[in-house]
Design brief:
heterodimer; A: 111 residues; mainly beta; seven-stranded mixed β-sheet; 11 strands; 0% helix; globular; B: 112 residues; six-stranded mixed β-sheet; five-stranded antiparallel β-sheet
Amino acid sequence: NAGVTQTPKFRILKIGQSMTLQCTQDMNHNYMYWYRQDPGMGLKLIYYSVGAGITDKGEVPNGYNVSRSTTEDFPLRLELAAPSQTSVYFCAGATDTDTQYFGPGTRLTVL
Amino acid sequence: QKEVEQNSGPLSVPEGAIASLNCTYSDRGSQSFFWYRQYSGKSPELIMFIYSNGDKEDGRFTAQLNKASQYVSLLIRDSQPSDSATYLCAVMGGSGTYKYIFGTGTRLKVLA
């Protein structure tokens, strides 16, 4: 099993551009999460999903959108990128609510 | 706003000592509590979770929970230089909630 994979690893965007951060898991996780981590800070929950077709907002959803059309995929969409969205983005999956398995992260810079 | 508070550190301990990491949370209805370790430039990995008041031990790690004081701690015995990392406390709310709230993390340095 590859676990939770994220692409790309790094990306530089210009202000106003859009992009999709990909997250895929092959561990049959029901629960999936998107977090952002700013330098020296903890993780802030952006969106989460408890199953295919079900998503909900976390603490910091503004400027982002998600979809969960399949159990395996949970992409995060950034529309109209802003410098405030410069961060490291982590996707995580969980089969139950005990253990989250994190992907390797995507480092995004918006200039 | 539900919050999870941690001292950012760095907390420096000599090799072989006990490291004590602390976390407080504001939501009295919180049910589940987690400690993650994050090495610099890497993703977080789960060390332990605890649900009930008291202590839970796993190898060199002990998690302690006091719901009345809204306090959770992590003790690392016989600290090793490889334990040097940032430790993140996370809290999940009551039944029907699947959101995790993370603290900002405590940076631990174990000195050889």
